[in-house]
Amino acid sequence: MAIANKPTQWTPAEVKEEMLKKYPPKVARKRASSILINEALGNTTPEIQANVRTIPGIITMRGCTYAGCKGVIMGPTRDIVNLVHGPIGCSFYAWLTRRNQTDAGENGENYMTYCFSTDMQDSDIIFGGEKKLKAAIQEAYDLFHPKGIAVFATCPVGLIGDDIHAVAKEMKEKFGDCNVFAFSCEGYKGVSQSAGHHIANNQVFKHLVGQNDGAKPGEYKINLLGEYNIGGDGFEIDRILKACGITGISTFSGNSTYDQFASAHKADLSCVMCHRSINYVADMLETKYGIPWIKVNFIGAEATAKSLRKIGQYFGDKDLIDRIEAVIKEEMPAVKAALGDVLPRTQGKTAMLFVGGSRAHHYMELFGELGMKTVSTGYEFGHRDDYEGRHVIPTLKVDADSRNIEEIEVEADPERFAPRKTEEEMQALTDAGFEFKDYKGLIPDMDQGTLVIDDLNQYEAEKLVELIKPDLFCAGIKEKYSIQKLGIPLKQLHSYDYGGPYAGFKGAVNFYKEIDRLVNSKVWGYMKAPWQENPELSATYVWE
Amino acid sequence: MLLRHTPKEITERSALVINPAKTCQPIGAMYAALGIHGCLPHSHGSQGCCAYHRSALTKHYKEPISAATSSFTEGASVFGGQANLLQAIENIFTVYEPEVIAVHTTCLSETIGDDIKQIRDKAEKSGVVPGGKHVIYCNTPSYIGSHVTGFSNMVKGMTEIAESTGRKNGKVNVIPGWVEPSDMEELKRLAVLMNVPITLFPDTSGVLNGPLSGEFKMFPEGGVTMKELREAGDALGTLALGEWCSADAARSLDTRCKVPCRVLDMPFGLKATDRFVDALRTIAGTSVPEEITRERGQLVDMISDSHQYFYQKKVALFGDPDQLISMTEFLVSIDMWPMHLVTGTPGKKFEKRINELTAHLPYEVNVQAGGDMFLLHQWIKNEPVDLLMGNTYGKYIARDEDLPFLRWGFPILDRVGHQYFPTVGYKGGLRLLEKILSLLLDRKDRDDSETVFELTL
Lengths: 544, 457
Prior knowledge:
By secondary structure, chain A is α/β, with parallel strands linked by helices. Chain A contains 22 helices and 14 strands. Chain B is globular and about 80 Å long.
């Protein structure tokens, strides 16, 4: 029998205890700090352990720093040749495996369908791989003449001491018309993909941002940070922004180009989608160029409307505000109609979300719109500020693993720094309740008594499903089929199960339909054959 | 055009691989280890390797792939991964309770020189390996060989379990190589029909093609058992299918336990299946039942029925050496023309075999071991073909060049069927021909003018 959807008999404390029971004592102690029962503590948010090492042998959802750097941040950029320096596997596995859509037009440059590797052999490990790397960069340049070649280090590169940055610099100088830069994103660095996001963003900031001072026409110019155009999310957001008359200068990094990064300093506002992967870029853009930033969320129709209004309020122009209201008014009826159709079938159902560094929070919006309750959630590679809010950032401990990830010091650019608003204007906005550079994290949006779990692993996921019996579990491909074997549908929120977009207004409609399909699919009722349901033969068949 | 930057003109590349026709060793070791009953594969390296391998295998099979990792950090990379592996072994046996952990290495742990045998022995001595349970291992540095050699190394690692009591047990070891769970099932079915008791290892059938029934079993019913692996040392003989995937393991059994072996091609297509059935019959001293002879006859019948559509059709293929060798023989046997062949796995023997199999054809075959799909695409641009065969990555070439495309190999990320329907044996041959024929005829129906469009083909 498939797990029946009935309310759990277990209290959160009992669930937590059950999850920890089987672990060796050391593991149980460590995991206990990452499993938080959300309880009111006066006015403070409870503290969770996050961004710490995964325990060896525990089947984790996490990937590595290289995956965060090459796969997540640089993967969606179409006109840079992304050359992986290492044995073949790392480049192979990051080849078209994230669903970053891109629109290069008929004749535009697009290297995203290609996989480039130096395919290091044992002789390169023994004698060093710099010579081969140089030759590979030269061959890529000769074949494609791209604007940029990015070099990514894999585990052995750091260990054998290849100086990829020196090679990149030498080749850049040699070519003159091709920017060559490198990322020290060896897989063993940090504790998860998160370190890779950081390494990628730092290099993008150092080597690309600010390279193009050419004028960028358009009104209400923004950067969209931390939107990766999975399943076309970015296209839907672009459509809405365009309808509102807002000009996108750059997206980091969905459907992006070299020039977008190079021109990012020309925007007047940075809007942060995925707080985890990119909040520090927003800070650096502000410090160096004077561009203020706000947190937005385009996942969920209401959240989209709210984010648009926030952008409108920032620019404070009546034309823009009116256009935003007109767009919302035009889009909402279709959203409401779709929701009205599915709500009777989704209302009251429960979901669990274990994904990413921001998605687990963003998607709570959509489930809320569907009348579904998020009963347990957590990030795969989030930090404490993603859970508890940015106010904890000054108190975060720098440990051995985070110390090795480069922090770049940025100061105001002597020529390009320009405040976008006067201090008085900024103060007036703040006084009116406008929140600059703020993010309150996931925990405040979770109900009392729910479980917030960082770096959830296979064993704990199975326990959660077994004990709490949600109607839907959201995670990634590695988790999908073990959860579904239990008779509970799993929605992939990394790859969207090859559907989407789910952002914006049209995305919300897609999501409503998809969740309705998943939680109400007939297949979950087929787990047992008739003879398994009723094994006793009560009578023999009477042939007429 | 999705591969719009691929020029027709071929230039020499010495350092840059573009669109590889291989991946790295550890994933092969992980796949092989899943073919042992009650086994949890373990990747000794940073956690990204394990995550990538699990993702790729999960997408290919649409089944849960359980595997653990040593989760190296920078500290472990400097001071060695022993502490991580010991801790992992303890945690795995406590939490997941497998019968056996199959450890494979990565470029990271190999570059720093971790000695897995020493760590394994230490784990056994220190008592973190419960009585009756096992830790086996193999070395799979990613900078040597390919996923194929990684698979082979883990299968060889399995043979180290084998013991020889000096008494033959009447069984035949069959090492199937990197084929699908459906293929492994088919090989077992053929052996049952012939009444030959076999030990098939690895055996992923029942592991990676499981049912949906409301239960999750981290260790499903399938897989070769540790007992069977131990007893493999007393077998009458070993049939190793595929020089690249299986020969090393068979030779190791021969050396260690004096189990004689024969290395055959993987039984894809008529002739290779003939040799497999004939060899099995000879080793076991049985006769081939009418049912198998009839299946063979059906395959011959389909070749004859549809020969006009296969005849001199040009094919480009990419994939792994053992598979491509058998497939080339099959294509040639039905008068199709393999034109361009690429494998990413190194080994000049591959080129030699392909050249031998195609020597009598009236053109020179393009073949490269250690090649890539960029080169294959360029060959196709220079000498177009009627059909492309390979893993899912071929769909980009197929779309750009408007080619019928048969998905066959690893990984298949966008179609199903390989889990359930074999392509080995005579039945598998029928399936391959049906697929090839459907692709060619769908294309003919699409392209024929209204004037010549036909009802009957």
